Amino acid sequence: MLTIAYGPLFIPALSNLVTRQTDWDSFREVLDSLINLKTSLHTESDLEEAVKYYTSSICDAAKTATPSSGTVEQVRLSISYPLEIRQMVDERRHARR
Question: What is the pTM of this model?
Answer without folding.
Answer: 0.55
